[in-house]
From TrEMBL:
Gene Ontology CC terms, in alphabetical order: plasma membrane
Protein name: Integral membrane protein
NCBIfam families noted in UniProt: flippase-like domain
Family: Belongs to the UPF0104 family.
InterPro entries reported for this sequence: L-PG_synthase/AglD (IPR022791)
Cellular localisation: Cell membrane
Keywords: Cell membrane, Membrane, Transmembrane, Transmembrane helix
Transmembrane in keyword set: yes
Topology versus the membrane: Multi-pass membrane protein
Regions crossing the membrane: 21-38, 111-142, 176-202, 208-226, 238-258, 264-284
Annotated PANTHER family: UPF0104 MEMBRANE PROTEIN MJ1595
Main location, first listed in the record: membrane
Length: 290
């Protein structure tokens, strides 16, 4: 991770317009966090559980902090989310785990859309690729129950038969599925737009198709990272991706620094504040003892 002096030098190089764009980029990040909380509330509601949106937002912010200081992407944060609503809102562990798993499954469609946008940056036969992905989406929909059951086995979620039926029946609730997929798609769009805004702060306006490639690469590096918050790995991966496509190294470093300032530095600070002020410290301490 770059030092404080590097960030200070970078900030001093920005003009007022750049700061405006950076402010909007920060806003898009926290709008994404809010959307994640809203999506979680909708999924939990579809499974018959009601948790206040403000509580879910605080839990999500706190989970980001835990993710940023513990090894492996999302590992500690997801455990915190599951434990928190199970202890404080009496949601069974199996149900809270299933709700998070369902969130992840709802991201399949937007990720496929992102893949299409990314491939369109290179492809000359985009129509054929879109048709192929359309077939994949249709297959996923008709094999939804099998995908759910397979995911449950892979992640070893111990659901009762009643909870399993409740989770499978979410497919029969169009409003829940449409909203979950739409909100997931919105998050990915905001992720790409955040990169766009950061790039524009340096006078560079890359096409969204190119940024879709970068966003996918960023996702991959984040999933493969084994360091807390992906420190070192995500930065190297993002800078490497940008320079591989011919972006000057100075610009690649600048974009990476600002992106990580938003998604890692600021989120760690805000997440810590949320954890300390929302009653999650006891839960986190209990998890650390196990």
């Amino acid at each position: 991770m770059m030092g404080v002096n590097t960030y200070t030098t970078l900030i001093k190089s920005l003009d007022s317009r750049a700061f405006e764009l950076l402010g909007i980029a920060i806003a898009t990040y926290y709008l994404s966090v809010f959307i994640y909380a809203l999506r979680w509330k909708i999924v939990l509601g579809g499974m018959g559980k009601t948790v206040p949106l403000t509580d879910l937002l605080k839990i999500n912010l706190s989970s980001i902090f835990v993710n940023n200081i513990t090894p492996m992407s999302r590992g500690g944060g997801e455990i915190l989310r599951i434990t928190w609503i199970s202890k404080k809102h009496r949601v069974p562990v199996a149900v809270s785990t299933a709700s998070i798993l369902y969130e992840r499954i709802s991201e399949i469609v937007p990720i496929l859309i992102l893949v299409v946008l990314g491939v369109s940056y290179f492809a000359t036969h985009l129509i054929l690729f879109v048709m192929l992905l359309s077939v994949i989406v249709v297959v996923i929909w008709f094999k939804w129950d099998k995908i759910i059951r397979l995911s449950i086995r892979i992640f070893k979620v111990n659901l009762t038969q009643e909870d399993l039926v409740r989770m499978l029946e979410l497919r029969k609730k169009p409003a829940v599925n449409i909203l979950a997929i739409a909100l997931s798609s919105m998050v990915w769009f905001l992720d790409v737009m955040r990169l766009k805004l950061i790039a524009m702060a340096f006078g560079w306006s890359p096409p969204l198709t190119f940024l879709s490639v970068v966003s996918l690469a960023n996702l991959l590096f984040g999933l493969l990272a084994f360091t807390p918050g992906g420190i070192g790995i995500v930065e190297s991966g993002l800078m490497g991706t940008l320079t591989y496509f011919g972006i000057p190294s100075t610009l690649a470093i600048s974009v990476t620094l600002l992106e990580r300032f938003i998604s890692y530095v600021s989120s760690t600070v805000i997440g810590f504040i949320a954890l300390m002020t929302s009653g999650g410290v006891e839960i986190w301490k209990a998890l650390r003892l196990h």
